[in-house]
Amino acid sequence: METKKQTRKTSSKTKELILEVAREIAAQKGVGQLTLEAVAEKAGISKGGLLYHFPGKKELIIALMDSYVAHLSQELYPEVEKFKGHPQALVLGFINWYKKFNGIAATNRTWGAAVFAVQSFDPQLMEPLHNWYRQLFEKIRGSGPDSLDTATAILAIEGLFMLSLYNLDHLTTEEKSRIIQHIEDRLLMRELSPKSLSE
User: Fold this and answer.
1) Which stretches hold the DNA-binding feature (predicted)?
2) Residue 126: enclosing H or E segment and its boundaries?
3) Domain span at residue 45?
4) What's the pLDDT tens digit per position in 26-78?
């Protein structure tokens, strides 16, 4: 007989499987083609089993968005932590994150692009991502007297991430390295007159 602990473990694995399959379908076919029937069939479970975890498509997409936002935090903040105490820890963390995958890992690009298509399905489902960026910009505003430099650097790196996300990155590896180095040199290592984002 299964113990409660084993049941919870099995339930958690099933939920993760559902999310993984839903992510694949959304990435390959788009959010519009993400149906509960398609997810259940590909996951090899009954529709009732799926509905036990996610009562509807909206709840499934919310879980996918929450998972994506958690992924962003799991990638960024450990990198930021490596520079704890540095006045530009946030920028250095972003740079490390970008360098880690040379943008966005190829396996995440189609799914990352699909995330933004959620807006056409229901704009309210983008709220977890909006919250992530609100918190990011609060951190930028609170980064001290040089918050304008922090914002400029992070927005530049975000632009590189977005080009990578949509497969629009036509820069050479050397060109991207020079851009990143320019950010580090100009905004982190030169003596600049600090400017606040709110000035």
Assistant:
1) 35-54
2) none
3) 1-55
4) 888 888 888 999 999 999 999 999 999 999 999 999 999 999 899 899 999 99
